[in-house]
Amino acid sequence: MAEGEATHHPITVAIERRIDPTRTVEATSWMQAGTDLATGFAGFLGSGWVRAGESSDLWYMLYRFRDMATLDAWEQSPQRDWWLESGRAFAKEVRVERRTGIEGWFDAPFATHVETRRMEAAPQTGPIQQPIPSAPPRWKQAVTIWLGFFPTNLLASYLLGFVPGFSEWPIYARVLLSTVLLTPIMTYFVLPWVTRALRPWLQKG
């Protein structure tokens, strides 16, 4: 994906930090303060943080902005600078990833990896650019979803025909039952399989 095109997609930033284990109480308040600060910026879509484990010093923070411009406004803000400075005594940034991609099943396998930085491994080299294939065109996504949905829906309609009295149910009840059954099947089985099978075609061009 070209750099200009990537700037118009939502950007998710994942940050890995090492926290002084003797100052977890302060770190907990500090992480929450960073989340609260980001909430007040235009384009903010959400954030959160977790610890790797009760005895681990690795803490992970995620935040997401509407596009690169709104993300830059947050990351270059004096509020964020103040917040980072206030935690410098007990928080050490280890790794940063930025990812942009479209929603749905294509986000993980076809997201564009914008930037990765490893502070401990190569602090002198700065950001490490690691491109990953860009999101496929929307028409290819539509074809992929249809290829999974049509045979699945056809098979489900055939099998539901054996349910006694099913054809006499009100249409809303039939649609409700079929969608309740098919949504998890499509999400967890059919679409992951179809996208893997079509990956060379989806990534082509």
From TrEMBL:
<keyword id="KW-0560">Oxidoreductase</keyword>
<keyword id="KW-0812">Transmembrane</keyword>
<feature type="transmembrane region" description="Helical">
    <location>
        <begin position="171"/>
        <end position="194"/>
    </location>
</feature>
<dbReference type="GO" id="GO:0004497">
    <property type="term" value="F:monooxygenase activity"/>
</dbReference>
<keyword id="KW-0503">Monooxygenase</keyword>
<protein>
    <submittedName>
        <fullName>Antibiotic biosynthesis monooxygenase</fullName>
    </submittedName>
</protein>
<dbReference type="InterPro" id="IPR007138">
    <property type="entry name" value="ABM_dom"/>
</dbReference>
<dbReference type="InterPro" id="IPR011008">
    <property type="entry name" value="Dimeric_a/b-barrel"/>
</dbReference>
<dbReference type="Pfam" id="PF03992">
    <property type="entry name" value="ABM"/>
</dbReference>
<dbReference type="InterPro" id="IPR038762">
    <property type="entry name" value="ABM_predict"/>
</dbReference>
<feature type="domain" description="ABM">
    <location>
        <begin position="12"/>
        <end position="79"/>
    </location>
</feature>
<keyword id="KW-1133">Transmembrane helix</keyword>
<feature type="transmembrane region" description="Helical">
    <location>
        <begin position="143"/>
        <end position="165"/>
    </location>
</feature>
<keyword id="KW-0472">Membrane</keyword>
